[in-house]
Structure formats: C-alpha cells, structure tokens
User: Fold these one by one.
Assistant:
Number 1:
Amino acid sequence: MKIAAFLEWLAASGLAARIRDSKYLFPLLESTHVFGLALVFGTIAIIDLRLLGIASTQRSFQRMASDILKWTWAAFALTALTGSLMFITNAPVYYHNFYFRTKMLLLALSGINMLVFELTAGRTIHGWDRAPSPPRAGKAVAALSLAMWISIIFMGRMIGFTTSRAAVAAPPPAGVNFDDFLQGTPNDSGGPTTTPHNK
C-alpha cells in the first residue's frame, strides 16, 4: 500500500471520523497532548539543568534521574498516543506539513542525543554522580536537549497554525464572480453587479 493511500485510509477510518465529528474529542485530545508535552519538557528540563550545573547540584544525578524519568516516559507515552489520534483526523495534510516533519525529525534527534549521553558521560556516571556538574559531553548533550525540546514545542504550535489553513475548500458555486465579493454589495438596481472587462 502506497503512503498516500495509507494516509487517506487513516483519515477515512471510523475512529478519525468520530474524533473529527465530535465537539469535544479533538479539543480534549489537544489539551491532553499539551499537558503531556509540558510534563515531558518540564521533567527533561530538570535533568538537563542538573547536567549543566545550574540546578539541584547537591543531589545525586542517578537518584534524581531515577525519580524523574519514570514520569517523563509516562508523559511521553500519553503525548504520543494523543498526538497519533490527532494525526489520523487529517493524516494527508499533517504528513506533508513542514512543521510536522521537522517536529518528527527533532524527536528522532532527541532520542539519538539521549543515546549519545549513554555512550559518553553515562558510562562514567559513577565518577561524577554527586559532582556539581558532569563532563563536557554531558553538558553538551543537556544544552542540545533543551534546544531541541524548545524547538519541538515551537514546531508543534506552528502545526496548528498552518494546518488549519490547509483544509481543502469546497469549489464555489457556478456563476459566482469573485469580484462581487471584493466590491461587497450588489448594485442599487438589485441586479447582479457587473465588472468592466480588462482592455
């Protein structure tokens, strides 16, 4: 199945139609998505600020990460679920949206960034666990993480602003003259407004 056909199938599914047609489902999903994203970013920011040596420098990094990351992953799962449900309501439009694609790319890069941390500073964590700040690699990962998650939030907002104008409008009825709309009102005689031909 080609990707275009799959996207159309998603948008035409019963679940997508139910979400689109409901007065409350999409706003509820969107609100939950924003709440989950705020929790993801908030918990990640706490860890990144600790890695940068800005906050919670007296706490064990491992202990703090253990306490916080379970909330991060739970919030990420919630955000991914609600985001997927919103995506299927207008899958072809979202898929081709520049900001949506950039957001997905940044999410993938943030995952790679976490892997880099595990392969660098994470391997020597016992040596700096209670130190005010980690090695340079840890700080670099933290700075990149904050930058990417701020960008992810920005891209998410831009998706909403751009896809709302991407819906396909119904064609105008036959015989409608768009110049009539620009002039605002019909002529005084009550008949149709005529416009001069270009010369």
Number 2:
Amino acid sequence: MNLTPNLQVKENALLAIGNTPIVKLNKLTRGLDANVFVKLEFYNPTGSYKDRMALAMIEGAERDGLLTPGSTVVEYTGGSTGSSLAFVCAVKGYKLKIVTSDAFSEEKRNTMKAFGAELTIVPSKGGRITPSLIPEMMKVAEELGREPGAFRTDQFYNRNAMRGYNKLGTEILDQLGDKANAFVASFGTGGCAMGVAEVLKAKDRSIGVFLVEPAESPMVSEGRTGTHHIEGIGVGFVPPLLRNELYDEILAVSTEESQEMARRLAREEGIFSGTSTGANVLASLKIAEKLGGGKNIVTLAVDSGLKYLSTEVYSQSAGHSRKNSASGAAS
C-alpha cells in the first residue's frame, strides 16, 4: 500500500514535524482582488512552528559536538520555543532548564512543565512585555548556562534556527506551485522570517517579504520601544538574525487590532490561533489590498489558540472589559 508522506507511520514524534497544510481565506478577503493563504503551523506536534526551530537547534548542536548525552539544555523563552524544546529534549533524553516570565500565557508555562522542563520565572511589570523583560530573561539564562554540563541554545543568536525554517519556505513553494507573490511574518528572533525568506528570495527575488512588529514597539522600523502584549514578537531590540537584504518592508499593527483579528479568524474562518497570528493576517490583508491583481499572499498561523485561552484574547473577562471600556468612553 502506497501512502503519502503525511500518512506514513513515523518512527518517533520528531518526524511528525513539518508538512503542515495551507488554507485559503474566504470571508476575511471579501472585496479584495488578491488571495491570502495561511499555513497552519499548529499541526506541528506541540501546536507551534517553533518545533521546527527547536529540532534544528538541538540537532545542530549534536552535529557540532556541543551537546552530548547527559547535557542540560538552557533557554530563555516566552513559551512556544520552550514548549518545543521541552518536546524535543523529552524525545532525545536531555534535561531542560527554561527561563520565562508571567507575562506569557499560563498554558505555555504548564506545557513546558508537562514535557519535564524546569522553569525559572522572571517577574513582569503588570503582565506586560516591556523593553527590559527579554534582556532580563537572557541574563538569567546566561547565568544558568555557566553551570557544569549546560548548553545554551541561545535562540536569538543561533543560526541553526534559520535553517530549521528553510524547509517551511520550500513547503510554501511546493504547495502553491511556485506561485507565491508575497510572504508576511511577524518576528521575534527573526529566525522564521529570515529562514523562509532565504528560500523564497533564492527562488525569485521579486517575491515580496513583509515583516510585522507591534505598533506599540516598532523598534526595527522606527527605532522606538514600548509595552505591548503580542506574545512572541516585539522583543525590544533588533534581532541579530535579521538581514535587511531578505525583506522588503515592515508593517506595524497594534495589540488590540491583532487580538480582534485572532478572534475573527476563529469565528469567521475556523482558524484558532493567537495574537501574533492575528497580526500576521491583519498585515496580510493590508498587503493583499495593496498588491491586488490576483496575487498570492502567504502567512502563518504560528500556533494554536489553545495556548491563549486564559489570556485577554479569549477569556470572558476580556470581552467584559471591552464592553466596560466602550461604555465608559460613551459616558
């Protein structure tokens, strides 16, 4: 019996990473003369595209002799990278120490612990992502990385992170029959955006690559930082992996409009995701309006909405507070 690759039995869970589906938006694109496609990265084992990066970083360290049996992996993360690393380390048998914060969803922290990771929590200011938060987490991770037998994956500086996303770019080209005209991606480390862009630009320099950052903290596009709540992006400094020659433009979208787009994605398109995905789709619709002409724009649903049920994106209290805010503004 001949089966397609997605239906074949995998020897372990790591081999289930990748080959995720792409779907076309229909309701949100009404009135636009362009197509928007969303690659559903929540089909990866932990429900996140970060599975690709985590596996690439660990296997890259193994190839280079930096990670050996009995080693302890150390990383700083808002949650999705930590969950993916915890998954990979569980399969491969490594211990994992994660530095994270209460600014990120409880579901993410619980997922990391479920896979066996040991967490160190850096307190946030009011549960928000401030410009100083990620650097503080990085400092704590650096201290843990000095312990005997420790290896820091150091995602912001790890070039294997980009290589982990090259296959994502190849999948996009294969699935759209080499007819992608633009790629839109929000960025934290920049690894995904640059890894995909490498492949797309090598195929055709005319494919537009558009990056997305929080309007409250447009560090790369405007050189200023601020507090926002789009988990996974807007880290407060220019990511070292970012390469100017691999992108064409940066768009800024706000936390509020990104959250609302995430809710609309679920209710109108059946795509259940988080705020950074909302930002991706919002920016993609703007690019679709700009390009028109039947062009094909591709973006990512980077992870599952199940990771954000306790946050203001989907919690009942969030809807209640929005109504109160509207009422207060009118009075």
